[in-house]
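Fold this sequence, please.
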Amino acid sequence: MVMTRRRTGYAGLPHPDNWHVEPSFQHGRQHLTPGTPIKIRGERGVFIFQRHVITEPRDRRRRRAEWIDVIGGTPGVVMYRSFRPERIGRVLRRRPVKTVR
């Protein structure tokens, strides 16, 4: 009997030590969690929030960087994109999932 290796889920690429990755983000009074649909100012389409990232500078000449990672875009085109948090235009309501019988 041959033992096969059990597959594990994709955990993503490891991020650098100076990155602080958070799965949620507070935008005004609204709390964004992975899967929350949002609109981005200056971009077409709806994007789905994934994570919030803050980087600490490695030396004193650089500044702290902050962005959100999203998936989405125009209908029919799905891309993985990153935006500054101040570009969040509107947080949309989640649509209830329809079950197929």
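The beta strands are 19-22, 25-27, 30-32, 37-40, 46-55, 65-73, 79-83, 88-91. Residues 26 and 32 are 6 Å apart (CA to CA).
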